[in-house]
Amino acid sequence: MKDILRPIERSSLKDVFVTRFEELILSGKISMGQRLPSERELALQLGVSRPVVHEGLLDLASKGLVTMKPRVGTVVNDYRKEGSLALLNSLVNYYKGDLDPGLLDSLLDMRHLVEMETVRLASQNRSDQDMLSFKGIVEKEQGLDRTDLDSIREIDFEFHHLIALASGNMVYPFLIRSFKPVYTNLSGKFFTDTTVVPQVFNFHKKLVSAFEDKDTPRALGIMEELLEHGRSYLKKIIESSDQDEQGQDLAKEKYK
Description:
With 256 residues, this protein is mainly alpha-helical. The protein is 71% helix and 3% strand.
C-alpha cells in the first residue's frame, strides 16, 4: 500500500486526506473488506499528525466508506450497502465531468420521486406566507443576470427547497437540504447553457400560479414537464462535454 500512499503536502490536511481515500476506495485501488494500516502507520506514511488521520477516518466512516472497529482497526466497507446520503456528493465529485450514467439516472429518478410528492403536498398545504415567498423568488429571478451562474444556481435551489417547506412535511425540507451539494453540482452543469435559464424560470412562474390556485393536477403536470426538461438537457450537456473532451484528447494525440 506504500506505493499509493504518498505524503500529503497541501493545506486543509483533513479534507485532503478524506478526498484521497475517497478516490482510492471508489476507484477500487483499496478493496472492499481491506483493513487499513493503523492510524499511527497512516500518519507516518502520509506525513501528517494522528489527529488529522483520526478525524479523516471519522469523516469516511460517517459516509459509510469505512468502519472503525475497536481492537480490529479500520475496514473498508462495500459503500453500495453501507453508504450514507453524505457519500452522494463525494460520488458526484469523484466522477467530475464524466458522471457515471447509472449514477446520473439514479439521482434524477430519486429527484422525480421526491419533487413530485412535495409539489403535490405544496399545492394543497401552501400558506399565504409561502405564496409571498414564492412570488418574491420569481420576482428576483426576473432581475438576474443570465450569466451569473452562482446566483442562478442558488435561487433555483431556493425555489425547490421552498416547495418542500410549503409541503407541510417536516422531513422533506431536511432531505432536500441534505442534497444541496449534489443538486447544485448538477444544476451548475445544466445552467452552463444560458438558453435554459428563462425556460426554467418560466416553469417556476407557472408553478407559483398553480400553487396560488391550489390546482394540484396542473402543478403536477408543470413539475413533470420541468423535470423531464431538466433530465433531457442535462444529459445533452454532459454528452456534449464528453465529446469535446474526447476531441481534445484526439487532437493532443495527433500533434504529439
